Amino acid sequence: MDERLRIFYELFDRRRSVREFDERDIEPEKLDRVLERLRRAQSAANCQPWHFILVRNEGRTSFNEVLTRDGFKKAPVILVACAEPEKAWVRKYDGVNYAWVDVAIALTEMIAAATAEGIGTCWIASMDPDAVKSILGIPDSMEVVGLITMGYPKTPLKREEKNRKPFNDIIHHDRW
Ligand SMILES: Cc1cc2nc3c(=O)[nH]c(=O)nc-3n(C[C@H](O)[C@H](O)[C@H](O)COP(=O)(O)O)c2cc1C
User: Fold this and answer.
1) Parallel, antiparallel, or unpaired for β 143-151 and 50-55?
2) In terms of pTM, does the model score above 0.85?
3) Distance between CA atoms of 68 and 138, rounded to whole angstroms?
4) Which of 74, 122, 150, 165 to mutate to test the pocket of ligand 1 (most atoms within 8 A of CB)?
């Protein structure tokens, strides 16, 4: 395989959920590059129905109480991903609102960039969204999709085999 392709595919094998962080902060230029992926991400009908809040130093004391694991509390950056359903594309056939899909795609693109930079991340869906909204003053029109912890992992990211379903269990050809 071509070297550039190999590096690209290995990126996804390096990503894993990081739940223990080094205290070291993320360099501002790196963080900017990673966050730019959110801004440039694709979305249904290019609606970009999202807002992202970076919770760092000052904001962390009260925010840490919504985090369930002590390891998450050490992450230097927590990104709070919000969907704005009123701004999202809606599928006319069944009324499905794509706001959460769009947010998840933007986060996935950002997480890939973070991985390339050696920054560890973990999606956190398990938190009280109302507590997050009230601590951060998030308007009622927003929905908290998830939190992403970001920081240098205690053990560096490396290529890993993951516990996943076999290919043939999930890929179907021509029909179910
Ligand atoms: C939408 C979503 C929500 C998740 N929520 C949590 C969570 O609340 N807490 C947690 O520790 N990990 C959470 N994870 C991480 C998953 O447990 C993890 O991705 C999965 O076990 C596969 O492991 P890997 O990410 O290391 O490949 C979440 C992942 C996703 C994609």
Assistant:
1) unpaired
2) yes
3) 20
4) 122
Per the CB < 8 A criterion, the answer to whether 108 and 176 are in contact is no
Q: Please tell me the distance from the alpha carbon of residue 52 to that of residue 100, in angstroms, as a whole number.
A: 13
| Residues whose CB is less than 8 angstroms from the CB of residue 167 and which lie 6 or more positions away in sequence, other chains included | none
Is the pLDDT assigned to residue 57 strictly greater than 90? no
Q: Which fold has domain 18-154?
A: NADH Oxidase (3.40.109)
Q: What token pair was written down for 167?
A: 């290919």
* Contact between 21 and 74 (Cβ < 8 Å): yes
Q: Which CA distances in Å does 137 have to 40, 83, 129, 130, 140?
A: 26, 15, 12, 10, 9
Query: Where does the pLDDT of residue 170 fall: very low under 50, low under 70, confident under 90, or very high at 90 and above?
Result: very high
- How far is Cα 102 from Cα 48, in angstroms, rounded to an integer? 7
Amino acid residing at 95 = G
**E runs forming strands in the chain:** 50-55, 77-83, 120-124, 143-151
Ligand 1 pocket residue status of 103, Cβ below 6 Å = no
Domain range list for the chain: 18-154
